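Hi F.,

I've been meaning to write this up properly since the lab meeting, where we talked about keeping a consistent format for the predictions we share between groups. The idea is simple: the sequence comes first, exactly as it goes in, then the structure tokens exactly as they come out, then a line or two of notes. No screenshots and no reformatting. I'm using this chain as the first example so we have something concrete to point to.
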Amino acid sequence: MDGMMWTLVVLALAAVAAVIFAYQFGRRAAPDSAADLVRILEATEKLKTTQDQLSGRMQQSEASLNQRLETLANRLGDGLSRQTEKTGETLKVLNERLAVIDSAQKNITDLSQQMVGLQEILSNKQARGAFGQTQMEAIVRDLLPPTAYEFQAQLSNGTRVDCLVKLPEPSGNIGIDSKFPLEAYRAIQAAKDETEEIQARRAFSRDVGKHVKDIAEKYVVPGETGDWAVMFLPSEAIFAELHANFSNLVEESHRRRVGIVSPTTLMGTLNTVQVILKDARMKEQAGLIQKQVELMLNDVRLMDERVGKLKTHFRQAGEDIEGIETSSRRVADRGQKIADVQLSKDDAAEQVEPPRPHLKEVER
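Output, unedited:
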């Protein structure tokens, strides 16, 4: 209820109280008095009027209250509906994000399993070597044509190199061997004090130096390979450690003519090999083109000679034809002269000796 309704209720209660008070007072004072009865009737009429007004006001207030309640209920319904829709959309987005999180969790689990498998591979020396060789072979296959390399190639000294890159002279073939000194590198990383670090660095230097020496002795064969061989390190971290803190090993490898490469630098080296192979193919094709041009020039020369001979034959044939025409005209002239001669009977019996032809005419 609003304030107006409460005011009407208070006035109605006051009027009822006044009527009751007047009625009780009239009974005690003069119950038979007509004036009091008139006042009571007037008060009763006023009370009835007030009740009617109060009833009308209450009905209006009730209708207004019902309307407001209905409006409030509609607003609450609309608000709840919108809130339900928003909640549904939020739950949908939340479900999508949970699905993404679940997929990421699955990927993390798979990656963890792969890391465990990789850790097991790297912990085994033989498996670690196979891992490095597989990585090296994948890089070579991606960058070189199949005719430019051979895996597990056997050399004349009885050794097998992981990969033999076939280059034209003067470079010659280059052997690539994969080495993975992971244990010594991990010892350097796990060193707790200076003494352990020094020992680990000595072990690392000893291992890498042995690898460089073995590669230089086994895979550099005069007359069969080039002057250089390559040691492939499948770890960028080990390659960086070697060049950053073991410059003496790098210099030693250069003296022994062994190049040390990582996966990234091997790609750059093989790109250079591609350029060399393309240049060799271009030179080969240029030689073939030059040879064909020489053959073509020889054919042109022969054709020119044959044209000259044919021209000589044509000239001789023309001269012969002219001689034949001259002889034919002379024969025709002489026949005409013979036909024009008038012979007597005596002369007809005689044998007329024909004139001897000229020597030049006989030659023709």
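Notes:
The longest strand covers residues 149-154.
Residues 358-364 have pLDDT under 50 and may be disordered.

If this format works for you, I'll send the rest the same way.

G.
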